[in-house]
Amino acid sequence: MNIKIFDVDHGFRSAIEADDYRTVLIDSGYSFRNGFRPSWYFLNHRTRHLDYLIVPAYTEDPFKGFSDLMSHLLEHNFSIDYLMANPSIDVNSVPELAVRNPGTGKELRLLNKVYNGQTNVDQRIHLGDVTISFFCNQYPEFLNVHNLSLVTFLYARDVNIIFPGNLKTQGWHGLLRNPKFRDRLRQVNLFVASNHGQEDGYCPEVFNYCSPDLIIIPNHVHQPLGADRIRQYERHARGLWTTFGKQRVLTTGDARTITINQPPSESLQVITQKHKVYSIRINRNRYLNAPRITPDGHLYDRTSEC
């Protein structure tokens, strides 16, 4: 299994390659800095098929990349099986959300046009040893598109990672009311910071339930992080041992593209584009009291999920 969190200027972008060769793309961020676009990765890997496209949030930046991906689909006979997004948002909710979230109307209409035509899938995904599940706040209880982000949990062997999209503090509080969500947080050992690590995406109460080994912040040149923000996240992470001490936080702004890799029968590694490698020594006793997602997917009642 291979997870890449890309260094992009706009939005967020992660690609997941399961051991059975199926591929999942989370968001469709892009970069003017290095010319990186959603279609670039697939062209270079000669991929003509995407099993799932997960759209965490209805915000402007990812949709510029989304348009590029749709153009790639038509030009290169590229196919996407399923598109996953917050199911509580549909064509009827677009007018109100567009008014309350200026600048998102075009994105909301575009995604719903595609989403309504392609989605017909269980809210839990199984790709070989990889299990992906979702949680989200519901419209109209929440009216800010950031707080309606589709939160993605991925579990595979020694990887328990959360991708919270652009969730803001109020959105975190909404999800923390759900005991199933809190149980899932307890299993997380790799935490991707919400909303590019910005202050409005930080929620300290999350870490009452979550003690990750490493926090990854997908920031970029337009959203620099000060030392105080880094230290704020560092105090919540256990850290990975290196020759220079513990590494608790990695940012894409510094490390560039980050790869999480676990070949069969080998230890979990986090590898940065700057050729730094961090090995994670898993403490399995840590999860003895936490519920696990089993390969048959019978852990959670779906009605509590997204």
Strand content: 15-25%
Number of strands: 17
Label the overall shape: globular
Give the neighbour order of strands across the main sheet.
Answer: 5-4-3-2-1-15-16-17
Radius of gyration, CA atoms, in whole angstroms: 18 Å
The tally of helices reads: 8
Order of helices and strands: EEEHEHEHHEEEEHHEEHEEEHEEE
Please state the second-level CATH architecture: 4-Layer Sandwich
Global mean pLDDT: 81
**Which spans have pLDDT < 50 for at least 5 consecutive residues?**
117-122, 287-304
Termini, distance in Å?
25 Å
Word description of this protein:
- By secondary structure, the chain is of the alpha/beta class.
- It has one domain: 4-Layer Sandwich (Metallo-beta-lactamase, Chain A).
- About 25% of the residues lie in helices and about 25% in strands.
- It has eight helices and 17 strands.
- It has helices spanning about 40-45, 60-75, 95-100, 105-120, 170-175, 180-185, 225-235, 250-255; strands at about 1-5, 15, 25, 50-55, 80-85, 125, 130-135, 150-155, 160-165, 190, 215, 240, 245, 250, 260, 270, 275-280.
- It has an eight-stranded mixed β-sheet.
- β16 (about 270) and β17 form a beta hairpin.
- α3 runs antiparallel to α4.
- The model is unreliable at about 115-120 and about 285-305 (pLDDT under 50).
Can you describe this structure in just a few lines?
The chain is an alpha/beta fold. Helix content is 24%, strand content 24%.
